[in-house]
Task: structure prediction
Amino acid sequence: MIKKISRSIRAKSTLVALVILCFSCIISLGLAAGYYMLFLSDGQELTPGTVIGLSLGAVTACAVIGFILLYFAAKFISDPLIRLSKGTKEIAKGNFEVIIHHKSSDELGTLAENFTLMAAELKTMEYLRKDFMSNVSHEFKTPIAAIQGFVEMLQDRNLSDEEFGQYTSVIIEETCRLNRLCSNMLKMSRLDNQVIYDKSASFALDEQIRKVILLLEEQWSKKNLDLDICLESVTYWGDPELLQQLWMNLIENAIKFSDEYGRITISAKEETSREIMVKIADEGMGISEENISRIFEKFYQADASHTQMGNGLGLAIAKRIVELCGGSIRCESKSGVGTTFTVTLPKYELNQ
Result:
């Protein structure tokens, strides 16, 4: 792109210079011819001094006219470059509100348009960075403050054994919360940067989901949930570790937002010869329409009261894993009715 623009500027500059030179010469020759005709009409003879004077006048006129035309031509070419230069300096200062206006549709116009788009993208990234830092600070601050408070309470020597047990339980719980947060942030960072070891293999997807359900048995048993499992025999070629993390996040999310004695439905089947579909549905609190579009954002929690344990990274990680697998994830929900997550994965053949 840069080489193309450079060639375009050189070509235009050369063309402009040639046009100015020709135009200046024509005007100068016209002036010289006019003076020559004027002398002849007056019956005067052209002396060598007169010829030299006319020649110098023509050269001077050519230089003046050429300079004026060249100035405006150079201004026309250099103005957008100067605006771009100023824009880059503003970007370097952290000002992402820069907009470069260039009306022409040539390469410079394209460059100006791309520059404006870049500034807008940088502005969005800066907003996300600040929002991310704010969310991270909040997520770390809450458990740390809780741990600090209960540690201070433990310094009271008049505590009963029951109070001591309660306080230490809270400290352990908040420490585990911090550990989960750090773990999820590392996973998210690894996935965002695609620093993923290629461990692709052929495995039974239905058996993997059953294994995840067993791993989470303590959680769904504690809430007396009824699990409706309908898993067809499905073989998948991919990264088993990533896929297990995906099912873990989605099923854990369904358990977390299900009411006691509720129902969770988990199904998997080959939708087509090239597509696998997995659905995980709960009958919990549901998600409002205004929140559905944001549930896959990092640190976003649809439960504004934060009564449910979590840090808002589980679904963001799930979405990223699905994207890396070349699939899609869709959420359908209604407040007070429940939520259904549908994951569609492309089925790769072993020889692919």
About this structure: The beta strands are 201-204, 226-231, 235-238, 263-272, 275-282, 328-334, 338-346.
